[in-house]
Every structure is written in structure tokens, then in C-alpha cells.
Amino acid sequence: MYRIKIIGAGSIGNHLANAARSHDWQVTLTDIDPAALDRARQSIYPGRYGKWDEAIALKLSGDAMSDPADVVFIGTPPDSHIKIANAVLDASRPRALIIEKPLCGPDLAGCATLWDRVKKDGLFAGVGYNHTLGRNTVLAEELLRSGLTGPVSTISARTREHWGGIFKAHPWLSGPSDSYLGFWKRGGGAAGEHSHAINIWQHFAHVLGAGKVAEVSATMDIVKDTGTEYDRLCFITLKSEGGLIGDVIQDVVTQPTEKSCRIQGRDGYVDWRVNHRPGHDAVLSGKGDAVEEQAIAKTRADDFKAEIAHLEAVLGGSAESSPISLERGLDTMMVIAAAFKSNELGRRVSIDWKAGYRPEALR
Ligand SMILES: NC(=O)c1ccc[n+]([C@@H]2O[C@H](COP(=O)([O-])OP(=O)(O)OC[C@H]3O[C@@H](n4cnc5c(N)ncnc54)[C@H](O)[C@@H]3O)[C@@H](O)[C@H]2O)c1
Prior knowledge:
Blueprint: E1 3-7, H1 11-22, E2 26-31, H2 34-49, E3 57-60, H3 61-64, E4 71-74, H4 81-91, E5 96-99, H5 111-121, E6 124-127, H6 135-145, E7 152-160, H7 164-168, H8 189-193, H9 196-207, E8 213-225, E9 228-240, E10 245-251, E11 258-265, E12 268-277, E13 280-287, E14 292-297, H10 300-315, H11 326-345, E15 349-350
Parallel strand pairs: 1-2, 1-4, 2-3, 4-5, 5-6, 7-10
Antiparallel strand pairs: 7-11, 8-9, 8-15, 9-10, 11-12, 12-13, 13-14
Helix pairs in contact: 1-2, 1-10, 9-11
Bound molecules: nicotinamide-adenine-dinucleotide.
């Protein structure tokens, strides 16, 4: 039985606690705020999963910092992630450290140092871009490998979701100004919060052997409203080292939600969908105008169960490589940072990967 210590007992912390319990893991759920621990026990967990699970230990994060665990999971706001990650590594020696997305704010502060530290310490570190672990992703990968598409012409990814949905899952927040969500510099706004689209674009580019993202061009709509400052629209075009060109759109205004990634080839296409129909992800594919739809029944809780199952494979040594590795999360962070720089400068920004995970790599 693996032991997981979760830092942050908010929305994501409860999802992970439930997923880990469903795999019979020993769970300690922690938070800096006693009111958050109370809310997890009285309202979030029973509201989502029927009743509180007495096997989950609740603790203040500071009191639990040096408690041993196989996996430490950081589910706090993005601008706290790297500081907490370093504190975890100072206080304990977990076998795996998973940090929620986005890894940090677009200033990339602490990224290069954390990367060096994790490599030196030899633990598995990851970032929670868990869509890459879904059955729709695995199926899309199989279709791409089958040769259905022929040579790929472009990839187009979308996470367009009005953030009313996020606030529905956080009834204790009054709105964007009440959390990091309303502040792009803290990792909120469309580019950071909805960065699953950038990440899945990179994931499929990786599967296709198209290389890392080499050039980024972005146009954003940054709003300043009642103390907040965030991008509500983020339109990005990307070019990979291998010459693959495509686009990503992330926004916090679109309703109903669109979460998709279309890989268009010379002969056919694969179209990856999240929540394509109620309770179902899907993969659409075909040649020419043909559309074959494969629906995959899924609940929200399943997203996190897949993440726990993947961690079991990582800890058990049976995962060949991990699409949620820290390297992949850092790759996405570089594109987020490049997008803000491109929007600010009004020109294309290139990423020099040899310069490491630092702002100087963005030219
Ligand atoms: N992968 C996904 O699908 C997914 C889904 C939801 C959220 N997230 C990510 O998870 C992270 C948290 O989001 P959330 O919606 O759970 O936020 P939340 O506001 O619901 O919860 C965050 C919790 O962290 C606690 N916290 C803050 N600073 C802390 C510290 N220093 N030590 C301990 N606890 C601290 C807060 O008190 C709060 O309870 C964000 O990065 C978000 O983008 C990912």
C-alpha cells in the first residue's frame, strides 16, 4: 500500500484523495488553513463522493512536512508550487513528487533550480497534466501509430471554457479576484489555468516525433477588472523544431465548453475530445469526410484514478516513460512564458532549449 501526502485540501486535493483511496492508498490530506481541512471533511468530499472517508488523515501542512510518504502531491495555487516543492525536498525523501499545473507563474522563477535538484536527487517528479493519461489519449495515439492520417499537416488544440464552471466547483470563492485565477502573473487566467491545451498539443507533437516547440506567437486579451489582471483570451500559433505548425486557443469565456485536439494529416484525421457528450470523452477519426466516433464513458473522478494508476506503474518500475514528467510540465511552462512575451512584444518568440528553463531562453 502506497502512502500519499497531499498538500492543499481544495478542489484538486480532494480529487486526488478520493482517487488514491479508490486504489487503497494511505492518504494524508493537508492544508495551511484549518478552515480548508474542515471544508474538505464537511462539504467538498461528501458532496462529491457521497460521504467522508474516515481513513483519510487530516493535518496542517506544516505539521506533516517531514512525515514520510511514497508520493507527495502539491495541489496549491501555482505561485506557491515551487517554494513548497523545495520545502518538501528539504524535509523528506518521497519517491515521487507531483506538482499541479501550471507549474508556476510565467516568470519561470525557480524552474531551472528545481529541475537541477530533482535530477540530482533522483526521484520521479511530475506535473499534473493528467489529460495525457486518459483513455481517449491512448486511443488517439494508437490511431496515429496505425498510419490512418498519413504525414501530419497540423495540430489544433482547444481548451475554451467559461470559468463559471471552475467557480461552481469552488463555491467558497466569490470570483476571480478571490484567488490566483484572476491574476496571470500568479499562474491564473486562460494561458495558465487552461494550459491543458498547450500541453496536449505538445504531447501529440512528441508522439509524432515533431520535437519541442521552437517558435511561439500569441495574441491575448488581458483584462483589468476590480483589482484583477488576467488574460481572458489566449490565441497561440506554434512551430516545432521538426517544422510542425499548429495552433492553440485557450479562453475563460466559451460556453458550452470545448476541449479538443485535432491532428490533421494528408490522408485522414484524429480528433481528441474531452466531455464530447455528457459522461463521455471521445475520439473521432476517419479519412476524407468520414467520421467514426469512439465514445469512452468517463466520470471526473476517473481522470484522477488514471493518474494514481500511472503513479503505481511509475513506482513499480513498469512505466516506460511518463507524459506527466516534470520535463513535460516545464516544456509547457516555457510555452506559456513565451506566449506572454510574444503578446507583450507583438512579435514571434523563439525558445532556445539549450539555455535551460529560464527567461533568457526566450528570444
Ligand atoms: N489537473 C487538473 O485537472 C486540475 C483541476 C483543478 C485544479 N488544478 C490545479 O490545482 C491547483 C490548485 O487548484 P484548486 O482548484 O484545488 O485550488 P483551491 O483554491 O480549491 O485549493 C487550494 C488549497 O491550497 C491551500 N494552500 C494555499 N497555500 C498553501 C500552502 N502554502 N501550504 C498548504 N496549503 C496551501 C489553500 O488553503 C486551499 O485550500 C492549481 O494549480 C490548479 O490549476 C488542476
